[in-house]
Amino acid sequence: PFDVLVVGGGPAGSSAAIYAARKGIRTGIVAERFGGQVQDTLGIENFITTTYTEGPKLVANMEEHVREYEVDIMNSMRAKSLTKNDLFELELENGATLKSKTVVISTGARWRNIGVPGEAEYKNKGVAYCPHCDGPIFAGKDVAVIGGGNSGVEAAIDLAGIVNHVTVIEYAAELKADSVLQDRLKSLPNVTVLTNAKTEEIYGSDKVEGLRYLDLDSGDAKEITLAGVFVQIGLVPNTEWLQGTVEMNKFGEIIVDSHGTSSIPGVFAAGDCTNSAYKQIIISMGSGATASLGAFDHLIRN
Ligand code: FAD
């Protein structure tokens, strides 16, 4: 059996695997797709020590670093369930079962897509999901934020300080964000809020040029000229396969303590699949290290 079995091969899982392997204990990493969300990222400018890198390059660096150690990398394999007998048993979609004394879950998250024409086509060409990551690309330009919940309104406030103008587009009749955020938003001179607005299409040529929406009050089709569209309708943790095992919050994020411990002793979690306050590469790597050290601590005490 493994001493530490890491589930997920993004920044959190890679970091957890390296920290475990450096303790000289048997370490495995199971990943549906090694690299995770970083594989889908174009430019990365906030990974400290590296002024600019690109997702696939950072993933190659991550994999090279993991391969420096005796880590059993099982790529293209999806975990299906986690149970405990004497040891933890991780069942995979392919029918295999892996056994381990401790488990670090780092299965990440995915942005909820709006699913309109143009969204997939213009991803990384004006369609963005992360204001902390991609905001500065749109400095001085006009952008829209789709979604008037907390994440959408926070994104709009953040972007308003960088871009020329922000249009917030909300499908419902009212914004759903906390009132302090709505007040802050309303105080900004370069923000327009559209409610009862149903986004229908993101259009452009080689990059985004605008957005078409249906004004549900008047029934009229309207359009706005834009350089960027931030889709902020939710981040969904990849934890469906753990329903009924570890404790999660109402968003489906695994609840962890300061040592990365979940509600099950011996099961740790890190990165975007947890209730961490912010979701970033550098934060995931830090929490992956924490969870792995937590697992090591657990092993030497039990
Ligand atoms: P992920 O990267 O999501 O990795 C999850 C891993 O788990 C993957 O290997 C996945 O295949 C695997 N997995 C999922 N389910 C299962 C399962 N059932 N069984 C086995 N394996 C499974 N952050 C920044 O700091 N800077 C940026 O510039 C930046 N830009 C971004 C741009 C885009 C387009 C996106 C989508 C995100 C961006 N982020 C950025 C956020 C950053 O990518 C995430 O915070 C980070 O990747 C989270 O790491 P993670 O390891 O927790 O999860």
From TrEMBL:
Self-association state and partner proteins as the record states: Homodimer.
Cofactor(s) listed: FAD
FAD/NAD(P)-binding domain ranges (all copies): 2-286
Protein keywords: Disulfide bond, FAD, Flavoprotein, NAD, Oxidoreductase, Redox-active center
Family assignment from sequence similarity: Belongs to the class-II pyridine nucleotide-disulfide oxidoreductase family.
Species for this entry: Gracilibacillus salinarum
Protein name (database record): Alkyl hydroperoxide reductase subunit F
Organism lineage: Bacteria, Bacillati, Bacillota, Bacilli, Bacillales
